[in-house]
From TrEMBL:
Localisation per UniProt entry: Cytoplasm
GO terms assigned for molecular function: L-threonylcarbamoyladenylate synthase
Protein name, entry field: Threonylcarbamoyl-AMP synthase
InterPro entries: DHBP_synth_RibB-like_a/b_dom (IPR017945), Sua5-like_dom (IPR006070), Sua5/YwlC_C (IPR038385), Sua5_C (IPR005145), T(6)A37_SUA5 (IPR010923), TC-AMP_synthase_SUA5 (IPR050156)
Naturally occurring in which organism (per UniProt): Ruminococcus gauvreauii
Protein family according to the UniProt entry: Belongs to the SUA5 family.
Length: 349
């Protein structure tokens, strides 16, 4: 398959390109496009065959549910059987934006889109290209991240091209994304609203709207026997090709421990990567050292994470050691992605 790659203005995308992309989705094809979180791989959410194509293009397990993207609130009742008052309050506060909510699904949503579940995940992105594409496509676009399953999510069109060129119909290049981590997911099919994936909208912000909210236990401990209700709950995600280990503790102890482990691997002939910050990168003396940004700029850390992991892949690094990033607002989301990428390999020093 030849993949058409087109560049658009992120705020005012060319109308003819967006109409063409919408037609591709209506006809059952696949289009990758930017959102404010990461690039998504879009297909018609109500088309069984389109969902099959998404799973095939990504190499994604078919029990890993897809998020349906909408652009208008009036389209939500078509997809779900119930919208709790708390969910309406949350939508009023954070839609459009980096928030996904899970509801009981309606009959029009195929099980192929929901990973066989009776619930459906829905998001309304806050990105002009995404909003226009969704409307051009008929209003309902299933869109996981536009990467090979398990790899770091794409924050640039170049990442999508690397993973999916020749596998999908079109890639819309809208430049770099804004947030760089996937949306927060809140499950409203439970008695208490439950966070299934942390993101930019953190637990404190959710409590401010919902009052009571809890964290899913699957975020704390891996359980391969569960059936995932949301993307990223069961399978290794966001992972570089090299073995990633996170080191946590007092900064001087972390730096010393990372350098010692890096030196050991380098002495054995391996290429080693180190993830530090602007404040600590200069303290490391060997290895391929990358700063993820300044510690006080947690939005920058989040935005740069997947890019840095992919850059290590480009350098054929066999081992990666990363500092821990438990920052105030997005630290929970950043560490969730890092732990997934590391297969929960973390050392405390």
């Amino acid at each position: 398959m030849e993949t058409k790659i087109v560049k658009v203005d992120r705020k005012h995308p060319q109308a003819d390109i967006m109409r063409e992309a919408g037609r591709i989705l209506k006809d059952g094809g696949l289009v990758a496009f930017p959102t404010e979180t990461v690039y998504g791989l879009g297909g018609n959410a109500l088309d069984v065959n389109a969902s099959h194509k998404i799973y095939a293009a990504k190499g994604r397990p078919s029990d890993n549910p897809l998020i349906i993207h909408i652009a208008d609130m009036e389209d939500l009742p078509v997809l779900v059987t119930e919208i709790p008052p708390e969910a309406k309050r949350l939508a009023d506060a954070y839609w459009p934006g980096p928030l996904t909510m899970i509801f009981p699904k309606s009959e029009c949503v195929p099980y192929e889109t929901t990973g066989g579940l009776d619930s459906v995940a829905v998001r309304m992105p806050n990105h002009s290209v995404a909003q226009i594409l969704i409307r051009e496509a008929g209003g309902y676009v299933a869109a996981p991240s536009a990467n090979t399953s398990g790899r770091p999510s794409p924050t640039l069109a170049e990442h999508v091209i690397e993973d999916l060129n020749g596998k999908i119909d079109m890639i819309i290049d809208g430049g770099s994304v804004g947030i760089g981590l996937e949306s927060t997911i809140v499950d409203f099919t439970e008695e208490i609203p439950t966070i299934l994936r942390p993101g930019y909208i953190n637990e404190e912000m959710l409590r401010g709207i919902l009052g009571e909210v809890r964290m899913d236990q699957g975020l704390i401990a891996e359980d391969m026997d569960i059936r995932p209700k949301a993307p990223g709950m069961k399978y290794r995600h966001y992972a570089p090709r090299g073995s990633l280990v996170i080191v946590e503790g007092r900064q001087e102890d972390v730096t010393a421990a990372i350098q010692k482990m890096a030196d050991e691997k380098i002495s054995q002939g391996y290429a080693v990567g180190i993830i530090g910050t602007d404040e600590t990168a200069g303290a490391y003396r060997s290895g391929l050292i990358k700063s993820i940004g300044a510690r006080e700029d947690e939005a920058g850390i989040a935005r740069h994470l997947y890019r840095v992991l992919r850059e290590f892949d480009d350098s054929d690094v066999a081992y990666i050691y990363s500092e821990s990033f438990r920052t105030p607002q997005m630290g929970q989301a950043i560490m969730n992605r890092l732990l997934k990428a590391a297969g929960h390999q973390m050392i405390e020093v």
